[in-house]
Design brief:
The structure holds 2 protein chains of 2 kinds.
Chain A (H helix, E strand, L loop, with lengths): L21 H8 L1 H9 L3 H12 L5 H16 L1 H19 L10 H29 L6 H13 L2 H13 L6 E7 L5 E7 L6 H4 L8 E4 L5 H55 L8 E3 L6 E6 L2 H6 L7 E4 L5 E6 L5 H16 L8 E5 L4 E5 L8 H18 L5 E5 L7 H17 L3 E5 L3 H10 L4 E8 L5 E7 L8 H8 L16
Parallel strand pairs in A: 4-8, 7-11, 7-12, 9-10, 10-11
Antiparallel strand pairs in A: 1-2, 5-6, 5-8, 12-13
Helix pairs in contact in A: 2-3, 2-10, 3-10, 4-10, 5-6, 5-10, 6-7, 6-8, 6-10, 14-15
Chain B lengths: L30 H9 L8 H4 L6 H14 L2 H26 L3 H28 L5 H15 L1 H18 L2 E7 L2 E6 L6 H8 L23 H13 L1 H13 L6 H25 L8 E3 L6 E5 L2 H10 L6 E4 L6 E5 L6 H16 L8 E5 L4 E5 L11 H15 L5 E5 L7 H18 L2 E5 L12 E9 L2 E11 L6 H9 L4 H9 L1
Parallel strand pairs in B: 3-7, 6-10, 6-11, 8-9, 9-10
Antiparallel strand pairs in B: 1-2, 4-5, 4-7, 11-12
Helix pairs in contact in B: 4-5, 4-11, 5-6, 5-7, 5-10, 7-10
The chains are: A alpha/beta, B alpha/beta.
């Protein structure tokens, strides 16, 4: 029995290794803010959404499978939360049933397993009931299949059989064990035999029986222990089988919880954004390799989650573009823009809705980030080494049809050197079918590419109005030789220019 | 066919071995380590005495060489080894039967022991019949074995054992336990309940999960409840258990004497062959030496010290091999050269080669012609014994004197740094005296010394020298070669390395 709520044909593996650039990605895209909004303080949810988002899907069909399941969840959040609670109850309940003192006796293992099975089947019956009552309201392949599976595998006849055996396994009529002569004529090959329906006659202590019998006197402690051991040898395989079955059913509940946890996280995020009236939409995933990525009202969800008010979204059309170079004013929303692209792509490939009015993009093989790092300010000579070494790590892992987000890369050396290094890196990578979003102050670099008039390059500028105010929108345009550091200077030093208002309310 | 021993061609050879103790030179030649390592895991055979008994007759050596050449054939070796393993298991079963309390159990262990024995004997006989063996030892044993396995005694033993085993395997019973009441009955084909229950929950099966099977101790003995159950099983199957009891009394002395002796003695060869396999794997050769009790024109090519090689091979280091030869009238190898240059190893190699050859075994060399000595004597430097007030030199002299008293022209004498505790003048004098006496006796001798003059003492003496790397004098090659003593050459090379030779130092000081 499999839940298959995350994938059409495979389990959602929480133990799966994350991509090795997970740390950089989390930091550069501000992922923890997103995860926290999804988890609402629940560590388990945090772990699940983190794993789910960082192990991107790369097949548009897989993405659609999740999107449809998520759409069902958004329709029926209470039913989904009910099922989730059942899974949690199963897992908690199992933890609270103890093995007792005689940990290594098949009897103890058998008894505990019976208790756990009783609990599990009570909960499985509740799942069956939910399926009976609500299945019709679900349309996605994932949930339709899931409910149908519950109806089929947990039909009444099966549930009755289980109940019968849970009773039979108490062995009120004693245990019957077959054996052969093993090493040194000791008993061996102990096999537990199906209990017979006893006649009334046989239930009497000296009823009609074949064979010979004896009774251990109550005071013969070692004899009683020996009988227990003999019985244990007979019960050993069945105790093992039952304990393993409880483990299997437990892992069904565990899987169910993990897979639902992702959708619970999505529900949490969705209601948070809905409260703020931030738009969300299901993106259109396209096959990889076509460099498509366009959006309307694309905003940085991490930034929005940290602010009271709504944030500014951007429209973007980069279809067929392999290099998107962003220049322009400081604090003009370049980093925010870069992050919004990465986050939306990542959320799309996790099967989620995205923070935009619309979004369509080719799926990519991986998202990589190369951001300027602030650490190590003292060793200026070591900084370029460090940057190059990180870029070399990326180069070792990156594949065609990946996305690389560069933020002020190679700014740790002088402009000419930095530009030349960056130029070589960028040329090599775009030829290798990597899509690059490059935020830079390196005019030499940006202008150099602009002059080549590549069809596959797009140049965006952080917009500035004639009065010096920033709009936080990016517009297409030729790189300009200065960034607007002067503005920042004025703002921070509270120096006003002739016409400019003070800019403390600059975000609206 | 008469068969008495796989180790000795003459009946007398085997008689006095049992009481032998470790020869005094064993420790000096590190043969004690070799033997210890060889016999580990074979304590039960008590093999050491065989290794303390060198042969003094070239024909006896040849008898062993023949047997060993047969055993070097993989198929023969494996057959004998499999036989030995079965015999060992048989003994374990008998020992177990001894230890147990309940008759029904003792009898079963005994039955199993006999089964293993029959199997061991029959397999070996069957395999040997189809294998090519050329040694007198194996041919005689094969013939003996085939006569034995066809004998009425053996065939009926095997048949009885077989049918009894089958009867016991057919015993199948049921135990019903309810509370403290136990009922034993014949098995009645009830279905396996565990399998049935497992099937019911199979649909939840995910991946591999951990096992909850409790490990029950599997002691050979039984508690009284198991014994009681077995007793009732015996009552359910009276004929089977009755036959078992009679069988045990009847076959108490089943084991054949000659086969028992073969089982022990053949281990002498197996131990050595298994031991040297590790060297052969490392590319170190062994050979059957050409043996003589008369000619002292000995030689060995690519020879090495077994004890040292054992250590080096296990560390993965390489082993340096050395050559030597003596042509009439040469008798004495005088070895000089730098410390830690492999001189002592060379003397051990010389001694080991001759001793192993006298045991009728292949020796660690690619080719060898060796002398079969009447005795081997060693004089190695010893830690000073403070209890004796005689002093070291005196102690050395006393020991050497004793050796010279006992040695004959057919002996081998190995002197390692004798007289190193005295002045050069004394050492020259004493060395000359001793070597002249040995030359007079005509014994074979290796003598490690720091006195160069001893290396050209008389026509019986040959000089051999430990060498160093010419480019780096601090680097030993562990090669001992036949050439005149090198005198100051080594000291000058070291000095040059540090720029302290006469010319260099003058130039440096002149500046």
């Amino acid at each position: 029995m499999k839940a298959f709520l995350m994938y059409r044909d495979q389990d959602f593996d929480l133990g799966r290794e994350l991509p090795t650039n997970e740390g950089a990605l989390t930091q550069d895209l501000g992922l923890n803010t997103l995860f926290e909004a999804m988890a609402l303080g629940d560590e388990f949810l945090f772990d699940v959404v983190k794993k789910a988002l960082l192990s991107s899907l790369t097949d548009p069909e897989e993405i659609t499978y999740r999107q449809q399941a998520l759409a069902d969840c958004l329709e029926e959040p209470e039913i989904i939360r009910d099922i989730y609670r059942i899974a949690v109850e199963a897992i908690q309940g199992e933890k609270n049933i103890f093995l007792g003192l005689l940990k290594d006796s098949p009897d103890a293992i058998l008894n505990r397993s019976l208790q756990v099975l009783q609990l599990f089947f009570d909960l499985l019956k509740r799942l069956r009931q939910i399926a009976d009552e609500h299945a019709a309201r679900f349309r996605s392949e994932a949930f339709t299949r899931f409910f149908a599976m519950l109806e089929k595998e947990l039909d009444d006849k099966y549930l009755q059989t289980v109940e019968h055996h849970l009773k039979e396994l108490q062995f009120h009529g004693g245990v019957q064990i077959s054996a052969r002569l093993g090493r040194g004529n000791k008993g061996a090959n102990y096999v537990l035999r199906t209990p017979k329906q006893q006649s009334l006659m046989e239930r009497l202590p000296f009823g009609n029986r074949s064979g010979y019998s004896f009774t251990i006197p109550d005071r013969d402690m070692s004899g009683l222990r020996a009988v227990d051991e003999l019985r244990g040898r007979g019960l050993n395989p069945i105790a093992n089988a039952l304990a393993q079955s409880t483990d299997h059913i437990l892992s069904f509940f565990t899987m169910l919880r993990s897979e639902l946890a992702f959708y619970i996280g999505c529900l949490n995020l969705h209601s948070r954004l809905a409260e703020k009236d931030e738009p969300t939409c299901f993106p259109v995933p396209l096959v990889s390799g076509r460099d498509e990525l366009s959006a309307q009202g694309l905003y940085d969800v991490s930034l929005s989650l940290n602010l009271e008010e709504r944030v500014v979204g951007n429209d973007l059309g980069t279809d067929g573009k392999r290099l998107v170079m962003i220049t322009g004013a400081n604090q003009g929303g370049k980093s925010t823009f870069l992050r919004s692209v990465g986050l939306a792509q990542l959320m799309m490939q996790g099967g989620m809705f995205v923070p935009a009015e619309s979004f369509r993009a080719s799926v990519c093989n991986g998202i990589f980030t190369h951001y300027k790092r602030e650490e190590d300010a003292t060793m200026t000579s070591g900084k370029l080494d460090e940057e190059l070494s990180r870029m070399s790590d990326i180069a070792a892992k990156i594949t065609p049809n990946s996305i690389l987000l560069c933020n002020e890369s190679f700014a740790s050396t002088n402009e000419r050197e930095g530009s030349e290094i960056a130029r070589q890196v960028v040329c090599a990578l775009i030829e290798a079918n990597v899509k690059i979003f490059f935020v830079t102050h390196l005019f030499d670099l940006a202008y150099g590419f602009y002059h080549e008039r590549l069809d596959t390059a797009l140049f965006l500028r952080a917009e500035r109005q004639p009065d010096g105010r920033r709009t936080f929108r990016l517009v297409e345009g030729e790189p300009l030789p200065t960034s607007y550091g002067e503005d920042s200077y004025r703002r921070i030093f509270s120096v006003s220019s002739e016409d400019a208002p003070t800019t403390s309310d600059v975000r609206r | 066919m008469r068969f008495h021993s796989i180790l000795f061609d003459q009946f007398e050879g085997s008689v006095e071995v049992a009481e032998l103790e470790e020869p005094s030179f064993f420790a000096d030649l590190n043969l004690d380590q070799v033997l210890e390592s060889m016999t580990t895991g074979r304590k039960e055979y008590d093999l050491k005495p065989f290794f303390y008994a060198p042969l003094h007759d070239v024909a006896a050596v040849k008898y062993r060489h023949e047997v060993l050449r047969d055993l070097e054939k993989h198929a023969v070796f494996e057959s004998v080894r499999a036989f030995a393993q079965r015999m060992r298991r048989m003994r374990e079963h008998l020992a177990q039967a001894e230890k147990l309390h309940y008759e029904c159990q003792k009898e079963r262990w005994f039955l199993d022991a006999v089964e293993i024995y029959c199997d061991a004997v029959r397999s070996l006989a069957g395999e040997l019949a189809h294998l090519e063996v050329n040694s007198r030892g194996f041919q005689a044993f094969r013939e003996y074995l085939s006569g034995y396995t066809e004998s009425e005694g053996f065939t009926s033993l095997a048949a009885e054992t077989q049918s009894l085993k089958e009867a016991l395997a057919g015993v199948k019973y049921s135990v019903h336990i309810k509370g403290n009441r136990v009922r034993v009955s014949k098995y009645d084909e009830e279905p396996d309940y565990s399998a049935e229950v497992e099937k019911i929950f199979a649909k939840f099966k995910q991946g591999a999960v951990k096992s909850y099977r409790v490990k029950f101790p599997n002691w050979p003995d039984m508690n009284h409840v198991e014994a009681r159950v077995l007793e009732l099983v015996a009552r359910l199957y009276p004929e089977v258990f009755g036959t078992l009891e009679k069988y045990c009394t009847h076959h108490r002395d089943y084991l054949d004497g000659a086969i028992g002796i073969f089982d022990r003695e053949v281990q002498f060869y197996l131990a050595y062959l298994e031991y040297i396999e590790r060297f052969e794997t490392a590319g170190l050769p062994f050979c059957y030496p050409q043996m003589s009790a008369q000619s002292k024109n000995v030689r060995a090519d690519g020879a090495f010290d077994l004890a040292l090689a054992n250590k080096l091979v296990s560390e993965g280091s390489s082993v340096v091999c050395n050559d030597f030869y003596l042509n009439d009238p040469e008798r004495i190898l005088a070895v000089t050269g730098p410390n830690q240059g492999g001189k002592t190893t060379f003397t051990r190699m010389f001694g080991q080669l001759h001793y192993l050859a006298s045991l009728g075994l292949p020796v660690p060399a690619s080719g060898a012609r060796l002398f079969l000595p009447d005795q081997i004597f060693t004089h190695f430097e010893r830690e000073e014994d403070v209890e004796t007030l005689r002093g070291k030199l005196e102690d050395d002299l006393i020991r050497i004197h004793k050796i010279l008293e006992e040695a004959t022209g057919s002996s081998i004498i190995i002197l390692n740094e004798s007289f190193s505790s005295t002045t050069l003048r004394d050492a020259l004098f004493l060395g000359t005296e001793v070597l002249n006496r040995i030359a007079e006796l005509g014994s074979l001798c290796v003598c490690v010394t720091f006195v160069d003059e001893l290396a050209s003492l008389n026509e019986a003496t040959v000089s051999m020298v430990g060498t160093v790397d010419p480019d780096n004098p601090a680097m030993r090659t562990f090669k001992i070669v036949r050439k005149p003593p090198q005198g100051l050459a080594y000291a000058i090379a070291i000095a040059r390395k540090y720029g302290l030779t006469y010319e260099t130092l003058k130039e440096r000081v002149a500046r």
